[in-house]
């Protein structure tokens, strides 16, 4: 006869599922699942610091969210991930634009959300430049800062045909 002993004093395993690791400034982050698996305690949810770290008033930047799995035997496993809060683009003052402003689509307190576009309209005798539609994008991969692409919009004088 060979006896078999199953260890139940092992720490739980933590599973951080992949998901969106950024949130737009002023929005609520949809946290990906975090699951703990334990021989003794079965499956249960991780405890997260996301609510304490990320909320609708969190300024742009990179934030660490910590996770903890604790089983009834007192074993603890910790994990973390970095979440980026992406900034909105500040609307520039554009001389010679139409009274409706730079972004005809509207904006909240003079700022546009990351990923959104603005249509530039100019008064007669001026043309939008570099293009009539600009988009609010990250300044670089993974950056929290945003800027209009292909550049800040402006209205340039229409050249005269001589």
Question: Which helices and strands, and how do they pair?
Answer:
Elements lengths: L12 E4 L5 E3 L9 E5 L3 E4 L1 E2 L1 H4 L7 E10 L5 E11 L2 E2 L20 E2 L4 E3 L6 E4 L3 E6 L7 E4 L4 E4 L5
Parallel strand pairs: 2-7
Antiparallel strand pairs: 1-3, 3-4, 5-6, 6-7, 8-9, 10-12, 11-14, 12-13
- Our estimate of the beta-strand percent is 35-45%
Class from secondary-structure proportions: mainly beta
Uncertain segments are none
Overall mean pLDDT = 81
Strand order within the widest beta sheet: 2-7-6-5
Number of helices: 1
| Rg value | 25 Å
What profile does the largest beta sheet have? 4 strands, mixed
Q: List the secondary-structure elements in sequence, H or E.
A: EEEEEHEEEEEEEEE
Distance between the termini: 105 Å
